[in-house]
Amino acid sequence: MIVVENNPPYKITDEMLSLTVAIEKKVHAATNMRFFMNKPYLRRNNRIQSIHSSLAIEANSLSLDNVRNVINGRAVIGPVKEIREVKNAYDAYEQLSAINPYNMNDLLKIHGVITKGLVLDSGAFRLGEEGVFSDGKCIFMAPPARLVRELMQNLFDWLKNSQNAVHPLILSSVFHYEFVFIHPFSDGNGRIARLWQTAILMRWEEIFQYIPIENQIYRFQNEYYKAISDSHAAGESSAFITFMLRMIEKVLTELLETSSDDSNPHVNRLLSVMEYQKSYTAKELLKLLGLKSLLGLRKNYLNPALKEQLIVMTEPDKPTSKRQRYRRT
Known about the structure:
Blueprint: H1 14-32, H2 40-57, H3 64-71, H4 80-94, H5 104-114, E1 131-134, E2 137-141, H6 148-162, H7 168-182, H8 189-204, H9 213-219, H10 221-234, H11 238-262, H12 265-273, H13 282-289, H14 294-307, E3 311-313, E4 326-328
Antiparallel strand pairs: 1-2, 3-4
């Protein structure tokens, strides 16, 4: 007989407490700086990075530029399924502010968005058994399908009842792990788990809507899976909570460090003369900025903006092409 636990097991450690305090300070610093105010290009760029990274973790092969082009409605050559995954993920992330992360019906609705046209049981819990395989061997078997609804209801009951007692950073990380453990859907579990953690954190601090936590997870993908595996082995989520807190602290640190570069007056001036959805030659930008030196344009304006992915090349594989143009992201 399988016993369904009502409360997810985990232990609070000194490192978790230290990371929580550090994250709180950095969130408040970013908020006080009005970090994303009047910076739609930065908000959009981070959203695109989140989508690309979350899909790449699940083996979607489209590059960041291709993901951006799909979202911007441009033609992209690639697997139809992967292009559909990008469109679906974008639609789901656009609904973040409307999601009630404590409502299981909202979860099913968003799963329907993320897997639209991809699976037959879109928007519904799985009816079959699921496992994780490596080199042809099953390394983890998800709970039986007959228990999924009960397990998910218990998880949402705990989530709702604990929202005022457990810190959102801990709460969202525990949910992320338990969701992955239950594996409630036939497809889209990782994408939903990462998006849902963001939805929970947004209820705490709205700034999390535009913080690309998924990008950090993608960069430390092996450690992500190890934290999940270690938590499976321990029978509780402490290792995974610690990992997620480290990722959140890292991404906030990088964003705050970038803020000094973002205040670069040359970059700000460049962005101010560039319209969205429009491409410019270097000579056109030279004229718009009232400059005379192409070398100075590239050194002080284009290169810093390209480094921060605030602009992109239309011919990224041919940087010196005569047809080269630049556009805002």
